[in-house]
Amino acid sequence: MSVQNVLKLIKDNNIEWVDFRFVDLLGRAHHISLPAAEVDEATFENGVAFDGSSITGFRGIEESDMVMMPDTESVFIDPFTAHPTLNIMCNIHTPDGERYDRDPRSIAQKAEEYLQKSGVGTAAYFAPESEFFIFDDVRFETGINKSYFEVDSEEAFWNTARKEEGGNLGFKVRQKGGYVPVQPVDTQQDIRSEMCRLLMESGLRIERHHHEVATAGQGEINFRFDTLTKTADNLMKYKYIVHNTARQYGKVATFMPKPLFGDNGSGMHVHQSIFNGDTPLFYEKGGYANLSDLAMYYIGGILHHAPALIAITNPSTNSFKRLVPGYEAPVNLVFSKGNRSAAIRIPVAAVTPKGCRIEFRTPDSTANPYLAFAAMLLAGLDGIKNKLDPRALGYGPFDKNIYELSDAEKAEIRSVPGTLDEALDALEADHAFLTESGVFSEDFIKNYIELKRAEAKSVSIRIHPHEYSLYFDC
After folding, report:
1. What is the sign of the dihedral through the CA atoms of 403, 456, 448 and 267?
2. Alpha helices (H) along 220-336
């Protein structure tokens, strides 16, 4: 969309405010709103200034001036503001006009540019399946003398005897029993449909929505794939609309990977493929799951670099509460067709040549999508460059239930890192595939690891309530 078309959109829709947004290292969106009357062609040419020193992981106070440069392809009308508002995603530049090397959105764009320069293909397509919970109430506190969390949901199995409902209506979702039940068990059909309506109005092509496996309001909405940066933009839009629609219903949505103990967590399974123009490069009839050698090498790159990659695709301490055996958790660094216990699954049901793709099941939505998609693409391209065949490297295929293998067989399978610190150790030792191309800088990697180690330490030094159960009577 041209600048002139954006200005016309503002005029035709009586827009009062233009909201300029960017994403920080942690994947949180930030915004500054300008009166629509103050937005003209010069705004798009010169950008919008902001203080980078107030954003975690960006700049020091001595070099804090930064500029948001709006991307006219990312506009959508905000469905939640009382005053008509147009939202625009931005890249971050330094005052001298250079792309900021810690800007996640710029990193995503550089990854796409690297793909084109590599000669492998012209575009990489991504489609994340980002799961979430919708709760009725959430409370948490951590302090010197207390630490707890408590969440609640009208459909949770632990509320079969609750009296506060004014007459308990039953039909609760059993633990691990929430996969696609109809109403009245599924209490959130209407709220998910409203989310989808708003998502479609904002430009996303919605494919389906449904209740997910866990009790207490786990859901999933799938939207159509797109190119790397556009998909990351769409995921930010998706999370924004899910969060705010839940709030309008008096509820709260979270993409936290493991908010409940003993039930399935929320993942972000990422489908991905590479095209050369209109030609799908992952398809070859007769290959394993109809995959081409190029697709196999791509899989090899992801699995080979997975321990380091997971520091970016699963960047929270809570991520590793989900990545444990059971609960459909993809903890095994292998690939398979149709097997959901493998880190990489190749969908085979109703797949056309253009729909041929791989699904990396390990990521979750604490990941910054711009960084996660860029890192996955670079790992896959490194596999193609070095012809890392996952079959020769012992990564499968494994087409049986991995959880039912013998201990000796399981010992032959690599697993994901067990903690965030282990993943960060792997990233520290293995990141040339990210920096060799110039997409990620050494400064970015060092800064990212420092931020995430500080997060991990802040959790590890705190007293856990379960420790009282284990040790208080010693």
Report:
1. positive
2. 228-248, 293-304, 306-313, 319-322
Q: Which amino acid is at 280?
A: P
Active site residue 165: no
The secondary structure of 416-440 as a DSSP string is --SSHHHHHHHHHHS-HHHHTTTSS
Domains annotated on the chain, with CATH: 3-100 (3.10.20.70), 123-471 (3.30.590.10)
Query: Catalytic residue at 340?
Result: yes
Residue 51 appears among annotated catalytic residues: yes
Asked if residues 305 and 423 have their Cβ atoms less than 8 Å apart, the reply is no
Q: How far apart are CA 169 and CA 291, in angstroms?
A: 49
Collect all residues with Cβ–Cβ distance below 8 Å to 257 and sequence separation of at least 6.
265, 266, 267, 314, 316, 318, 319, 321, 322, 364, 365, 366
Query: pLDDT (tens digit, 9 = 90+) per residue, 30-67?
Result: 999 999 999 999 999 999 999 888 898 886 655 678 99
Catalytic: which of 129, 154, 155, 226?
129
- Supply the pTM of this predicted model: 0.95
131 is catalytic: yes
The CA–CA distances, whole Å, from 79 to 72, 83, 208 equal: 18, 10, 20
What whole-number distance in Å separates Cα of residue 197 and Cα of residue 67? 33
Task: Give pLDDT tens digits for 120-138.
Answer: 999 999 999 999 999 999 9
* Catalytic annotation, pick one of 102, 192, 211, 269: 269
Which pLDDT does position 245 carry in this prediction?
Answer: 98
Q: What is the CA radius of gyration of the chain?
A: 23
Are 85 and 107 contacting, i.e. CB atoms less than 8 angstroms apart?
no
